[in-house]
Design a protein that fits this description.
By secondary structure, the chain is α/β, with parallel strands linked by helices. The protein contains five helices and nine strands, in the order E-H-E-E-E-H-E-E-E-E-H-E-H-H. The protein has one domain: Peptidyl-tRNA hydrolase (Rossmann fold, 3-Layer(aba) Sandwich), CATH 3.40.50.1470. Helix content is 27%, strand content 27%. A hairpin with a 3-residue loop joins strand 5 and strand 6. The N and C termini lie close together (11 Å).
């Protein structure tokens, strides 16, 4: 089983924002799919073959809460004495997290395994909750030359992508997602 988590923020307000590329990527992969809300995981879920696609509804900065609940449910986190989660479990073949990356240009993607969050709050939340960074990250670029120099990062990532940027991001992701 593979668990593929797309990071984003719930609601139409954020649907096409730079920060929602994880949600958008899952929609691109699962065109016309009917997502079902699961209250236990506070996530939208879609099961397909040996994959579970997940859109946490906890908002970006709390993505780890939903991720940990799902991994615990499927007994995918190693335990010591059944009380404490073992640190540094290797989930690189099980857990795939798709998210935006401000250090990568729009139209580019990068794959990382066992790497730090690099300041991405959604990834930080996941690492904190599951006590390991040893999972696969599919990083989708959102960096643009059009970003106003003094615009705060929080405003920039919540800004909607224009049609050209959205097209570049989609093409890049769909051309490179096959590792999942």
């Amino acid at each position: 089983m593979k668990i593929i988590i797309g990071l984003g923020n719930p609601g139409d307000k954020y649907k096409y924002s730079r920060h929602n590329l994880g949600f958008l990527a899952l929609d691109w992969l699962n065109k016309d799919a009917l997502w079902k809300y699961n209250k236990k995981f506070d996530s939208l879920l879609l099961a397909h073959e040996d994959k579970l696609f997940v859109k946490p509804q906890t908002y970006m900065n709390n993505s780890g809460l939903a991720t940990a609940k799902i991994l615990h449910y499927y007994h995918l986190l190693a335990k010591n004495l059944t009380l404490f989660t073992k640190k540094n479990s290797d989930l690189s073949d099980i857990l795939y997290v798709i998210h935006d990356d401000l250090d990568i240009n729009i139209g580019e993607t990068k794959i990382s395994v066992n790497s730090s969050s690099a300041g991405h709050r959604g990834v930080e939340s996941i690492i904190k909750e599951i006590k390991t960074q040893n999972f696969t990250r599919f990083r989708v670029g959102i960096k643009s030359n059009n970003k106003p120099e003094k615009m705060p990062i929080a405003n920039y990532v919540l800004q909607s992508l224009d049609d050209k940027e959205l097209k570049h991001a989609k093409e890049s992701f769909l051309n490179n997602w096959k590792i999942i």
